Amino acid sequence: MKNASFWITTTALATLVLLLGMGAAHANDDLPRPPPPPAGWVQPPKQTEHSVQRDVESRTAERFTAATGGDANGTLSQQQAKAAGWGFVSDHFSDIDRAGSGYVRLDDVLRFMSERTPQRIMGQKAAAKSSGQNTDSNGSTNR
């Protein structure tokens, strides 16, 4: 009789645990679901490295044009960059203006930015590491 009551108790406990577990599995069914997308909505294309680069260049050109007063082919001084709130260009102006003329063109800004992409910096660090050189945080090599 002890054996039978043990099995009945064990079976009852196992059934209870199973039922409680099922309740926990379905506990989140009452959460609200996000609404469906609106009619005519199209999934945006996946971004690629090329599309991101094109977007950055486009935004940089817009910002450059605004900072120069509407002249996309003009030149930008450090004071203009600072007045336009473009701290990145203002702070790195001497690095961007390699000729030391006091003015930069859009191509100069884009070149400087492309030299500082994470992919390029990591590539430079990897190349320097394999050749035994040290690199600083800007990707410049030090011997």
Characterization of this structure:
This protein is mostly helical and 143 residues long. It has a domain at 62-143. 57% of the residues lie in helices and 6% in strands. It has helices at 2-25, 49-67, 78-83, 87-91, 93-96, 106-115, 118-131, and strands at 76-77, 103-104, 134-135, 141-142. The strands form 2 sheets. A two-stranded antiparallel ribbon has the order 1-2. Strands 3-4 form a two-stranded antiparallel ribbon. The longest helix is centred in the first third of the chain and has 24 residues, at 2-25. The mean pLDDT is 82.
Separation of the first and last Cα atoms: 87 Å
Strand order of the largest sheet: 1-2
Query: Which structural class fits the helix and strand makeup?
Result: mainly alpha
Q: Sheet bearing the most strands, described? A: 2 strands, antiparallel
Radius of gyration: 31 Å
